[in-house]
Amino acid sequence: MWPFFKKKPLEFPDFWWEYEEHFKEKLPESIHENTFVVLDTETTGFSLTKDRMLCIGALKLRDNTIVVKESFEVYIQQEHYDSESAEIHGILKHSKKSTISELEALKQFLEYAKNHILVGHHVIFDVNMMNAALKRNGLPKLKNKTLDTESLYIRTLLMSSVVQKKERYALDDLAKKFSISRKDRHTALGDAFITAIAFLRTIEKLKPQKIKDLLR
């Protein structure tokens, strides 16, 4: 029997504790010393309760460079299928792509992301979908800090003489603004690549000195 005066440790898998261990390290203060994980998820829809992730794609950025050889892409076994969303992401119900379980996908992503800052376009959606998946598997929420390319892009507009601004900016808007190819649009890794380039272009305009200048 566990002693009443000691708190019983939570029974999470080893990979979760290994993920948490990374957060004992402080992030570097310099932008160039940080590694950014640019991610995107393809999902069956927008509901955090009913819908599921189909694919997670991610890239790492170091010192203003996309580290293509360290790209991340996993397809997840489908419990839920939506024919309308399939027309957008192109992931078919009986696709021949190799798939893994939701828990294994989460495990691999946490091992990949470590304590790095997560970057995404409307990143909170991706984070919330991942948190919903973590919850289904009895795990806590992601601990990583996040940066949203839409919010950063709007900051560049505030620095310019542009008077009329839109309320929302889609990833296509940023791709058009920065002349980024949309060849692989609506694939998780393709959208992560577009987002990574947009992030780098935005950083060039903002010229932050420290990581805190981005996270404010």
Overview of the molecule:
The chain has 216 residues and is an alpha/beta fold. It has one domain: 2-Layer Sandwich (Nucleotidyltransferase, domain 5), CATH 3.30.420. The chain is built from 8 helices and 6 strands; from the N terminus they run αβββαβαβαβαααα. It has a 6-stranded mixed β-sheet with strand order 4-3-2-1-5-6, sandwiched between helices. Strand 3, helix 2 and strand 4 form a beta-alpha-beta unit. Helix 5 packs parallel to helix 7 (188-206). The protein starts with 13 loop residues before the first helix and ends with a helix. Mean pLDDT is 88; it is low at 4-8.
- Largest sheet, described in full? 6 strands, mixed
Distance between the termini: 47 Å
Strand content of the residues, in percent?
A: 15-25%
Level-1 CATH class name? Alpha Beta
Number of H- or I-type helical stretches = 8
How much helix is in the residues? 25-40%
Looking at CATH, which topology would you report? Nucleotidyltransferase, domain 5
Overall pLDDT: 88
> Quaternary status of these chains?
single chain
CATH superfamily placement: Ribonuclease H-like superfamily/Ribonuclease H
Strand order of the largest sheet: 4-3-2-1-5-6
Global shape:
globular
The low-pLDDT segments are 4-8
The CATH architecture: 2-Layer Sandwich
Helix/strand-derived category reads alpha/beta
Short structural summary:
By secondary structure, the chain is of the alpha/beta class. The protein is built from eight helices and six strands. The protein has one domain (33-215): Ribonuclease H-like superfamily/Ribonuclease H (Nucleotidyltransferase, domain 5, 2-Layer Sandwich).
